[in-house]
Amino acid sequence: MRLEAQEISFSYGSEEVLKGIDLALEEGEILGLVGPNGSGKSTLIKCLNRVLHPKGRIRLDGRDITGMSTREIARCIAYVPQALSVGMMMNVFDFVMMGRRPHIGWSVGDRDVEKVVEAIRLLGLEELAFRRTTQISGGERQKVMIARALAQETPILLLDEPTSSLDLRHQMEVMELVQRQAQEKGTGVIVALHDLNLAARYCDRIVMLKGGRIAGTGRPTELFLPEKIRAVYGIEVEIHRIDGVPYLIPIRPSGEAAA
Amino acid sequence: MKGIGGQAMTELRGEYRRSVGRKIIFIASLLVLTVLLAGFAITLGSAGLTIAEVYIAIASRFLDFVPAPDPLATTVVWELRLHRVIFSMLAGFGLGIAGAVMQGVLKNPLASPFTLGISSAATFGAALAMVLGLGMAQGEYLVILNAFVFSLLATAGIYSLSRYRGISAESMVLAGIALMYLFSALTSFLQYIGSREQLAEVVFWMFGSLQRTSWLKTGILALALAVVVPYLVYRAWDLNAISQGDQVAASLGVRVERTRTEQMFIASLITASIIAFTGTIGFIGLVAPHITRLAIGGDHRFLLPGAGMVGSVLLLGADSLARTILAPVILPVGIMTAFIGIPFFLYLFVRSREGFW
Questions:
Q1: Domain membership of residue A237 as a residue range
Q2: Which of B5, B252, B354 is the closest to A74 by Cβ?
Q3: Does the N-terminal or the C-terminal CB of chain B have fewer CB atoms within 10 Å?
Q4: pLDDT tens for each residue of A192-226
């Protein structure tokens, strides 16, 4: 499924957070959203599945989503927020089962149970499946939220900092899982990341935001250049390439102010 | 991060089925307990009936082959006690489910008809009728209708106040607490200017009592519950989704503000149709959902009927004790619910290692 957003603008009260963003996500593509704090990454993600209601047009396979029901949108786009939520007295299995909500009327069918089990397996959460979500670590909770999104079985995934609470090994595992979903199932993924090296390694294309506008877009190799990083983040970096992937080593804040 | 292993998958699937089974058993056992408790509750009192006599008196109305019971037993059961017992069950069920809905949509463990000002609004409405005789009907129904209308006004007040800041859980809770204090103050004012008899009447209303039940009132309450409870249980997934956060719920296809408004209104309607008849019974709506959540977890598909059944047992049990403990004096049930419910709740609360929310 192709997602296309045109001239997306959004304001919190009088403060304009997004200013005329255009982007497109192809089937099976991983699109990284990067940019400094407050650049509008999380807001943009929430605009794309109408959790927020922006100005502009969003189309799924050419169809305007303002004409779709909330449940229809939820069958197409899954969302993992940045903040960790725990639910009320729920175990991991019931929590992941929430991902099936757009697909079920009231009772849980065999296919729903199967999809939940599959998502739990994919994230390696079998041991925790019947523990309460309040009894597990922050990193485990983040994986549970990703499992819920996978159980939702959508052609598009929106991930807001999905690795922020994870250690290095689990960051790689989660990103590789996302990559497999894109390659094997053709899932289109938009992922907001602070870690530029993770973005460089796993994203097909990068959209760089600054102050609510697009500051650059392209492949990681085209975009992650010292002058670009200086302009957007206000830091000096060295860039090393290993197997063609650019890795950034931050050196110091730039002399001129970042803003 | 492994492939799908057949065995582990079967295990998880089986474990899930068992966990659902446990929830159903919990609710079913409460149902059985309620029926037994009801039979016992009807025997309580001065007529000295046995449980068998009670069941025969009830069954002979519906089944031809059951022998005709003693006329006294029939009169006591049908005219005096059965409607009170059924009303207690229904009222407990309604208060439990209303509390569970409020805690769910507001994501707040302290939410209940009592803490959100709905009970105090009803009290003010009742007091207005008792002290000033103001209202929209005559006699006994003046108090009932006033209490009912004012509790719905409180809900409308919570809704309009919270609209200014977006209908979030926090804004609704704060608006509810503000209204609770406002209506308490207004009631105190009426008590201050009222006569001694009026003051006593208001205070007695605030205790909550099942003395004034009748078949008509029981029928009205049964009808109200029959209409809204299936709908609430049907929409239980929305409450599950909201418990994971408003934005996640929206991404799962729930229209959050609309759901929150609608469910709060329904829960208030249930509460209003109970406390208008009984006066304030504060404790069940707060605690029945917590007891149920501790027992079977937070899936609202089971939590809502479960909290209702726990509410039934609590209110019926409390009323039975209230009728016997100082017999022939019958204590107001509102006092007794707190006496038996709070120790039980604190026991669960202290014992629970996994937290209670």
A1: 225-259
A2: B252
A3: N
A4: 999 999 999 999 999 999 999 999 999 999 999 99
